[in-house]
Write a structure and sequence with these properties.
15 helices; Growth Hormone, Chain: A; mainly alpha
Length: 466
């Protein structure tokens, strides 16, 4: 039975994706967020389950992320210089599936009978393997697929929404289940290993399904028109020239900075809630309740983000969401210790994060199109890799901020009482810094005017070709 032909989007661009395509594509993000979500919980695991010093853990994380960020650039260069005629992006999902599962499990199998120094070495090696090599080798090709899969900005936005939803499901499972479930399993290292095995299996399955359904170009046969994605077969640009061009693209720089701030925020939120529940609310099992309640604004966010984009467009949707996040986090300063009050405000902050999760890839795609307008080359892989560089640095700083704040406050994960210094440290990485980040992101979006100019740029690109 033949499928119903697909139509065109609001801008007259041929659609090429169906519901099954969106679902399969989103599972790649599920796997990536399984990795980043587990990494976000490692500070708590290392300090409160393994007994490692918070400052040392934070510093190792930061070094890992710096090295990790540079591998993004290397991977982008590898992708862009793939031999013509061969698939650039899809094969990496298959190549990295099994290594992903193995190293996820390895995160939690820290040997107990070794010195603290050797534990830090083990932590460094496993984190470098997972984030700098495996995650990067998946993320750069996977994010590039969003650009070469379809020319339709509408479909790209929908891909971003599906990806964000799948990634958020992955993150929410971790947020809701990891503390209560590991506590139920004994609350020790063995319990965390069991949890890691479960997520490793889900990650490998997601990558395999995504690989099977992905396409390198948006070509449809049969009754539907043949559509070839613009620029997917362009000649590679020398690396140094590509980087120079990117930093001369003011819109790409804005998205780079937005990605940096966003990932600082994500890096903080990945682990801050556990400390907040344990020391401010007095019960780390409340982390599960926070995660469960957070599903409500998450679901609402994914429901409304489509209509928001349709009504306001990409950039204005982000302006609104960043403003909401800025205001609601500021209101937490009134009463930072009340669980119900802060949880309610946290729901609005969660809602404010959803549009950026959905639209970061879309904004990057806009800047790639602007590359073609300005330089005659899209530089897809290098654009994604260099943006990923900023994101990795941001997430590294975000995760390390927690440990550094705790180290300054002389935090002891095995202590039984909360000191005033530790309380202020927790407020700093849970409230003060996120408030600053939302404010800066709001200001940046006020300056981003590419979306309204892009149709004219695309028309000029087509005119040059003809």
């Amino acid at each position: 039975m033949s499928k119903k032909p697909l139509g065109k989007d609001a801008y007259g661009v041929q659609k090429v994706m169906r519901t099954g395509d969106y679902f399969a594509d989103s599972l790649g993000q599920f796997a990536l967020n399984a990795i980043s979500g587990l990494i976000g919980q490692l500070t708590y695991f290392y300090t409160d389950k393994i007994g490692m010093a918070a400052g040392a853990v934070a510093t190792v994380f930061f070094v890992c992320k710096i090295l990790d960020a540079f591998t993004d650039i290397i991977m982008g260069n590898i992708v862009d210089h793939t031999e013509p005629g061969k698939e650039k992006y899809r094969p990496w999902l298959l190549r990295m599936a099994l290594p992903t599962a193995v190293v996820i499990i390895g995160l939690f199998t820290v040997p107990t009978g070794i010195s603290d120094t050797m534990k830090l070495v083990y932590m460094f090696v496993t984190n470098i393997l997972l984030t700098a090599i495996i995650y990067t080798a998946i993320a750069i090709p996977y994010t590039s697929l969003q650009i070469v899969r379809t020319n339709s900005q509408q479909e790209r936005a929908l891909m971003g929404t599906w990806r964000a939803a799948a990634g958020y499901v992955s993150g929410m499972i971790i947020a809701i289940a990891i503390i209560p479930l590991t506590n139920a399993l004994g609350g020790n290292q063995r319990a965390w290993i069991k949890f890691g095995v479960g997520f490793a299996l889900m990650a490998i399955l997601g990558l395999l399904i995504c690989y099977l359904k992905s396409k390198e170009t948006a070509v449809e046969s049969g009754k539907e028109p043949v559509v070839k994605v613009m620029g997917d077969d362009e000649e590679p640009v020398p690396f140094a020239t590509a980087i120079k061009n990117l930093f001369s693209n003011k819109y790409w720089v804005m998205v780079l900075v937005l990605g940096f701030f966003t990932n600082v925020s994500y890096g903080i939120s990945g682990a801050s809630g556990t400390y907040y529940c344990k020391w401010i609310y007095g019960n780390d099992n409340l982390t599960g309740i926070l995660g469960a309640v957070g599903l409500i604004p998450t679901i609402i966010g994914f429901i409304i983000v489509g209509p928001m984009i349709k009504k306001l467009g990409v950039t204005k949707s982000l302006k609104v969401s960043f403003f909401v996040g800025m205001v609601t986090i500021a209101l937490r300063l009134i009463n930072p210790t009340n669980f119900v009050y802060n949880t309610a405000l946290g729901c609005f902050a969660t809602l404010a994060n959803i549009p950026m999760m959905c639209l970061m890839g879309v904004m990057t795609a806009m800047t790639v199109d602007y590359n073609e307008y300005k330089y005659g080359k899209r530089m897809v892989g290098t654009s994604q890799a260099a943006a990923g560089f900023g994101g990795k640095i941001g997430s590294g700083i975000g995760a390390s901020i927690i440990g550094w704040c705790l180290a300054v406050a002389s935090y002891d994960g095995l202590a039984e009482t909360l000191t005033p210094a530790v309380r202020q440290a927790i407020y700093t990485f849970s409230i003060y810094i996120p408030l600053l980040l939302f404010t800066l992101m709001f200001i940046i979006t006020l300056k981003f005017d590419l979306e309204e100019k892009l149709p004219g740029y695309r028309a000029e690109i087509e005119a040059r070709k003809n």
